[in-house]
Structures are given as C-alpha cells and as structure tokens.
Amino acid sequence: METVAIAPSFSLAGKRVWVAGHRGMAGSAIVRRLEREECAILTATRQQVDLRRQAEVEEWVAEARPDVVFLAAATVGGIHANNTRPADFLYDNLVIETNIIHAAHRVGVQKLVFLGSSCIYPRLAPQPMTEDSLLTGPLEPTNEWYAVAKIAGIKLCQAYRRQHGCDFISAMPTNLFGFGDNFDLQQGHVAAALLAKIHAAKVEGAPEVVLWGTGSPRREFLFVDDLADGLVFLAKNYSDEPHVNVGTGTEVTIRELAELIAGVVGYTGTFRQDTSKPDGSPRKLMDVSRMTAMGWTAPTSLREGFAQTYRWYVDALETAGALRGVN
Ligand code: GDP
C-alpha cells in the first residue's frame, strides 16, 4: 500500500469556516458534519452573493474573513444536463472556482478544500483510477465541459500553493448520493433519478421502470455524509499538492444499482433498458489507497446509505405534499 505523508494536524476549533455552496447536496452535508466541530460555520445565500460575480465574492470574503473554505459550490447535473448545457457547466464552474480561490488567497485563508469530481479522469483510464491518471488521455465527451472546469480548479489550488504558499488542497469525490440530491428525472444523476422513478412506479403500481442506456456501465457511489466526513478528515490531516480521491473503491453496474434501490424501496416490478439514451463512461472506479493509507475509509454501506436517503426522500415528498395541502 502507498504511504502518504500526513500533515501536522490542522485544527478547525475556533475557526471561521465558509461552506461555499451550502444549499447543495455536498455543501449541506459538509455543514451537517461541521456542526460536530467547534468552529463557526459561515454561509452566504445566493441573494447575498452571486458566486459568478468576482466583485461580489471579493467583497463578501473581505467582510466575512473566513479562516477555512470548503469550495462545494458548482453547477452540477447528470449525463443529460451535462450533455445539453455545456456552456453553463464550463463557464459557471470556471468562474465560481476562480473567484473563490483568488479571493481566499487575497484575505489569507489558512486552508481551502476544493471539490473536484471523478469525471476529471480520462474516459479510458486504467481502473481503478489513481490520482496520477489525470491528464493522461481524452475525457468522456458527455461531461468534458464539467471535467475541464474541475481540472482547472485543481490546477488553481496547485498554482496558488506553488506561487503563494497557500494551503489549498483538492479532493475528488466519486459519484455521490444522499439527502438533498436533485431528484429531477432530466437533470439529476442516476442514483437520485432511479430512486425517484422506482418510488413513483411502486406508488402507481407500474409493472416496469425504464433505465437509460444498456445498464452495463459501472459506477462507484459514495454516501454524501461520508464524503463530508472524508473532507473534514482531509482538512485536518492533509496538506500537499496532489489531489486525493474520496470514494469507496467498490462499484456496481447501473442494473445492479436499480435492483438494490428496488430492494430498498420495496418495488417488485421489472426493468427495461432504453438504449437510445447514452451510457457515458463504461467505468469510473476510483483507487482510494491514498485515503486508506492516511487512515480514512467510508463508514456507510451502499444499502444503508440508500435506506437513509429513501427515508429522507419520502419525508421530503410528504412535507411538500402537506405544504401544498395548506396553501
Ligand atoms: P455520469 O456518471 O456522469 O455518466 O452521470 P449519471 O450519474 O447521470 O449516470 C449515468 C449512467 O446511468 C449512464 O450509464 C446512464 O445511461 C445510466 N442511467 C440509467 N437510468 C438513468 C436515469 O434515469 N437517469 C440518469 N441520469 N442516468 C441513468
């Protein structure tokens, strides 16, 4: 196993910690995790700061004076969204990360954790994908816009570390699922879309659910609260230029994922593949030996993570239904 130097422990106690993107799935999980630390959590609403506007970001950061930043703000989406909104995925993400990283440098932020994505790796990178496979081959065309922006974010952290000595690090989460995901069938990622589709099929008594693509691509899934735990671990224990993969190191096919979710939801119908829809990358398994060598592994099993997410989703639907009833 690879040995990774663990940095002297960085303490969050008493620090002002800004979670950029706190309304998103990853950002809200980071906020939940930071509530267990003795730090002050800072957040900015979209009305307070448009993260795509440099002047607004610089002004807010100069006033809020964070010591630590978790950069979880991003325009994200599933395969269809990425494929059809390339300008949003490239422009928004480039400008958000550039504004925040530069502003953090200007006010002397002590630690910044940038969130990338496993889709930064070449489409046909050897599996499982080590951190070193970055920029060794062509990207997956359905999400290259997002990937190019996230690669630039890693490079920004490295550049500010080299030129200005900033302790800015990058973590590469694998595919995520959990509370607060985007359950929209067109825009969402596969985990949330399947949870929503399979739940609806169960409620309606529908005999089959349509899955996009062939069902054979393999994906790794990480429960978002485990990601947040891993990021806090990295903030405290890691300080170096290379980015670090955060995942489980295990994978399932899309078909197996659908079957697992059907088991959690209690759906007994069948699945049909719509092969007119794209498959995307054939496989995206991360090599997580750097994190493992540092002493961190994801604590929640896939089934347990989906069981928790399903309970959250049903509660959210009920709350939305109750609110509609009142209005
Ligand atoms: P990716 O991991 O970046 O490719 O994006 P997604 O999280 O959207 O996963 C896409 C994979 O799941 C592809 O192989 C799709 O064909 C497959 N898939 C099956 N059904 C669905 C669905 O209902 N929504 C989405 N987003 N993907 C689906």
Molecular structure report:
The protein has 327 residues and is an alpha/beta fold. Helices cover 43% and strands 15% of the residues. The chain contains 10 helices and 13 strands. It has a 6-stranded parallel β-sheet with strand order 2-1-3-4-5-10, with helices on both faces. Strands 11-8-13 form a 3-stranded mixed β-sheet. The chain has a two-stranded parallel ribbon with strand order 6-9. Helix 4 (86-106) packs parallel to helix 5. The longest helix has 25 residues, at 302-326. It is globular, with a radius of gyration of 20 Å. The termini are far apart. The mean pLDDT is 95. Guanosine-5'-diphosphate binds next to helix 6 and strand 7.
**Helix fraction?**
40-55%
Please tell me what the overall shape is.
globular
Order of helices and strands: EHEHEHHEHEEHEEEHEEHEEHH
**Between the first and last Cα atoms, what is the distance in angstroms?**
58 Å
Class per helix and strand makeup: alpha/beta
- Strands of the largest sheet, in order across it? 2-1-3-4-5-10
Number of helices: 10
Oligomer state of the chains in this structure = single chain
Instruction: Catalogue the unreliable spans.
Output: none
Largest sheet descriptor: 6 strands, parallel
Rg: 20 Å
How many E strands? 13
Distinct compounds present: guanosine-5'-diphosphate
**Mean pLDDT across all residues, rounded?**
95
Content of β-strand: 5-15%
Q: What's the layout of helices and strands?
A:
Blueprint: E1 16-20, H1 25-34, E2 40-42, H2 54-64, E3 68-71, H3 79-84, H4 86-106, E4 111-115, H5 144-164, E5 168-173, E6 175-177, H6 190-204, E7 208-212, E8 218-219, E9 221-223, H7 224-237, E10 244-246, E11 252-253, H8 254-265, E12 270-274, E13 283-284, H9 289-294, H10 302-326
Parallel strand pairs: 1-2, 1-3, 3-4, 4-5, 5-10, 6-9, 7-12, 8-13
Antiparallel strand pairs: 8-11
Helix pairs in contact: 1-7, 2-4, 4-5, 6-8, 8-10
Bound molecules: guanosine-5'-diphosphate (GDP).
